Amino acid sequence: MRESAAGPAWLVTGAGGILGRDVLAELAAAPGTEVTGRTRGELDITDPQAVRAAVAGHRVVVNCAAWTDVDGAEADEAAASAVNGTGVRHLARACAETGAVLLHVSTDYVLPGDAGRPYAEDAPTGPLNAYGRGKLLGERMVAELLPRTGYTVRTAWLYGAHGRNFVATMLELARRRATVEVVADQYGQPTWSAALARQVAALGRAALAGRAPAGVYHGTAAGRTTWYGLAREVYRLSGLDPGRLRPVGSAAFPRPAVRPAYGVLGHESWARAGLPCQPGWREQLAAALRTPRFAEPAAAARGAAPTLAGELPG
């Protein structure tokens, strides 16, 4: 187990993704923290030998590696589950062999999406699609192989500085189209990847110190909204006219994978660990929109805003 003058060594898998990059940056900026990042090209978590070699010498592993193509999982569930389920088993087994803590990132899609109030961390699971089934398999591997040092952090509706995400898409559509239709019958918690990265890092430190019990944690913003509600707030905070948005039902955008209608998560585990919950989704969004990743496309959208209905050139 590698310990250096810099402190315990962390490994971040999936370090090239939307969350992985933020977790890596969060840890690298912390004094006394040694961190290694491995992208998908550098570490295939479906290879048990490669996983064992990568985990060796680390005290904490943050697994951000995942098959994230929800609709693609319907066409190739075996491939998706190899990453989201079997790959997590390899990581959990390697951590069990070395005594490392594992923080595994999962999703609200492991839940049935039919609740009327926020799901508790111990609520019965029941995924509606292939992606959720694969992610649930990964959660079970963490619980089975690491009952004392395994942590599953479920998140949802993630957006951030890197990669494709809903907030960036809304700003791009605002530049190109006079009106935009947005789904208004799915409820969730828009979560800024930078806020989640801070929370994951805090959980890892608490786990190392023996202050956080193993198990499931819900890593989402406080509050709830719909995709339409999120889009309206993106427009409002960006100086765009929310009246250009049109609410529609999910049936207007048929997809191969069924999406849960209700993915709002409760946050009781953080209180039990003595750790703060994330800020509200509006507060997170306002902070995110001030960063260059979103401020620059918002300015471009304001400059291109149409006065008549129809699609803009662009």
From TrEMBL:
One Pfam family recorded for the sequence: RmlD_sub_bind
SUPFAM superfamilies with a match to the protein in the record: NAD(P)-binding Rossmann-fold domains
EC number: 1.1.1.133
Keyword NADP: yes
Pathway the protein acts in: Carbohydrate biosynthesis; dTDP-L-rhamnose biosynthesis
UniProt entry tagged with the keyword Oxidoreductase: yes
Superkingdom of source: Bacteria
Sequence ranges assigned to domain RmlD-like substrate binding in this UniProt record: 11-290
Keywords: NADP, Oxidoreductase
Enzyme type, top EC level: oxidoreductase
PANTHER family per the UniProt record, alphabetical: DTDP-4-DEHYDRORHAMNOSE REDUCTASE, METHIONINE ADENOSYLTRANSFERASE 2 SUBUNIT BETA
Its biological purpose: Catalyzes the reduction of dTDP-6-deoxy-L-lyxo-4-hexulose to yield dTDP-L-rhamnose.
UniProt record similarity statement: Belongs to the dTDP-4-dehydrorhamnose reductase family.
Protein name: dTDP-4-dehydrorhamnose reductase
Organism: Streptomyces yaizuensis
Lineage, opening ranks: Bacteria, Bacillati, Actinomycetota, Actinomycetes, Kitasatosporales
